[in-house]
């Protein structure tokens, strides 16, 4: 079974996978698989809730690469909006007891996308994005990943150049990913590589 290593870029930042990132990613995937929607009782009714997870570091911890104000806006308003909208969309539906990944898969509906998909996918993308960065992180990956990058792109610098080009020339909003076998792909707004 091939392992998947991902590098993602959002218009405000980019990150590079390292062994520490790989452990973070595995931890995130594990916690997300285990996480279920919580239920809250409001005025005698049961409502669904996907929680807005905070980044795993202080909001100013990524400075000077990403400012506290950028994180406050992007996480505190933008990401929060996706969470709030998703909760409104799944309340009272069969999706309200499902995990975030199950909501994404069910609402993708084999390409006939249902309304909750856009918000659920953006919640997952943002959680993955926050978990993929850390204070003092970044730089050249080591060992196996670096060997694969050199094999497929010729050099780490060539990957960075192609990655930045893919992110900069992506029409509209979206994400740029480096996925297994070291190929760069872009996805529209909410699409992802789950």
UniProtKB/TrEMBL annotation:
<keyword id="KW-0560">Oxidoreductase</keyword>
<keyword id="KW-0479">Metal-binding</keyword>
<dbReference type="GO" id="GO:0042644">
    <property type="term" value="C:chloroplast nucleoid"/>
</dbReference>
<dbReference type="GO" id="GO:0046872">
    <property type="term" value="F:metal ion binding"/>
</dbReference>
<dbReference type="GO" id="GO:0004784">
    <property type="term" value="F:superoxide dismutase activity"/>
</dbReference>
<feature type="domain" description="Manganese/iron superoxide dismutase N-terminal">
    <location>
        <begin position="52"/>
        <end position="134"/>
    </location>
</feature>
<dbReference type="InterPro" id="IPR019832">
    <property type="entry name" value="Mn/Fe_SOD_C"/>
</dbReference>
<protein>
    <recommendedName>
        <fullName>Superoxide dismutase</fullName>
        <ecNumber>1.15.1.1</ecNumber>
    </recommendedName>
</protein>
<feature type="domain" description="Manganese/iron superoxide dismutase C-terminal">
    <location>
        <begin position="142"/>
        <end position="188"/>
    </location>
</feature>
<dbReference type="InterPro" id="IPR019831">
    <property type="entry name" value="Mn/Fe_SOD_N"/>
</dbReference>
<comment type="function">
    <text>Destroys radicals which are normally produced within the cells and which are toxic to biological systems.</text>
</comment>
<comment type="similarity">
    <text>Belongs to the iron/manganese superoxide dismutase family.</text>
</comment>
<dbReference type="InterPro" id="IPR001189">
    <property type="entry name" value="Mn/Fe_SOD"/>
</dbReference>
<dbReference type="InterPro" id="IPR036324">
    <property type="entry name" value="Mn/Fe_SOD_N_sf"/>
</dbReference>
<dbReference type="Pfam" id="PF02777">
    <property type="entry name" value="Sod_Fe_C"/>
</dbReference>
<dbReference type="Pfam" id="PF00081">
    <property type="entry name" value="Sod_Fe_N"/>
</dbReference>
<dbReference type="InterPro" id="IPR036314">
    <property type="entry name" value="SOD_C_sf"/>
</dbReference>
<keyword id="KW-0408">Iron</keyword>
